[in-house]
Specification:
Helix content is about 45%, strand content about 15%. It is built from 11 helices and 8 strands. It has helices spanning about 1-10, 20-30, 75-90, 105-115, 125-130, 140-150, 160-165, 170-190, 190-195, 205-215, 230-240, and strands at about 15-20, 35-40, 45-50, 70, 95-100, 120, 135-140, 155-160.
């Protein structure tokens, strides 16, 4: 998880962490000098969905007032997404209740059980449950991200300590170059050629993996830059719970 990755970096057990950009701000506030050297997504990829059994009653985000929303964990990015979505339609955090359902198989099971009014998911779970839910907001693309965050939102990044950067500037730049080149390669390479490079053990269902990757491609930040506006967005999200 992102939290354990951050712990490993602080303990000196790793030089870089691939995780949420928000961690760099959170750790900075705790007196730990961190820097994100590459942003790896311009849209967070969260999707707010409604189980089909509830779709006739819940057609918009505003209809979630008084409802129960499944999120990966309390205070997580998925809950931030849900709360910001509620705020955009004039509701507050307290206008809904939240249940931790995890990500992956547990989220898929929760969607199919139909006991929640809505849930926030990420791929590959979103693609896996596609036949069981109706999408209200999709931040794998620009429109859904702007609707919730008001602009681009870097979720994934590659970060390290300022001490490591200062002691190893050439190594840091080499890692940045390699990561950005990989993202540029993804941007220009056909989906099937990308899938051919993925180790077979990562792919349970090739058709489903292809659909997931196709939906996710637009969210990747191919130039690696993090703007001040994006940083402010992450900061405001953290402030909701801290």
């Amino acid at each position: 998880s992102g939290a354990k990755g951050a712990q490993a970096l602080v303990a000196g057990n790793t030089d870089f962490v691939s995780g949420a950009y928000e961690h760099t701000i959170d750790l900075q506030a705790k007196g730990l000098a961190m820097v994100d050297v590459v942003g790896m997504s311009r849209y967070p990829g969260y999707v707010l969905v409604v189980p089909k059994a509830k779709a006739s009653r819940i057609k918009t985000v505003a209809d979630l007032k008084g409802g129960t929303i499944g999120v990966s964990a309390p205070g997580s990015g998925t809950q931030v997404f849900a709360v910001r979505a509620l705020q955009k339609v004039g509701l507050t955090k307290d206008d809904a209740s939240y249940v931790g359902i995890g990500l992956g198989p547990t989220a898929v099971a929760a969607a199919r059980a139909g006991q929640l009014d809505a849930l926030v998911t990420q791929d590959p779970a979103t693609t896996e449950m596609a036949d069981d839910v109706v999408v209200l907001l999709d931040s794998r693309e620009a429109a859904g991200t702007v609707a919730v965050y008001g602009g681009d939102y870097v979720l994934d990044g590659l970060y390290t300590t300022w001490a490591f950067v200062n002691a190893n500037p050439r190594t840091t730049q080499a890692v940045v170059n390699a990561t950005v080149r990989a993202m540029l390669w993804l941007n220009k390479t056909p989906i099937d050629d990308i899938i051919a490079r993925v180790p077979a053990e990562y792919i349970k269902d090739k058709g489903q993996y292809r659909r997931m990757l196709s939906a996710k491609m637009a969210s990747m930040n191919f130039d690696g830059r993090i703007t001040e506006a994006v940083a402010k967005n992450a900061y405001e999200s953290i402030q909701m719970f801290q």
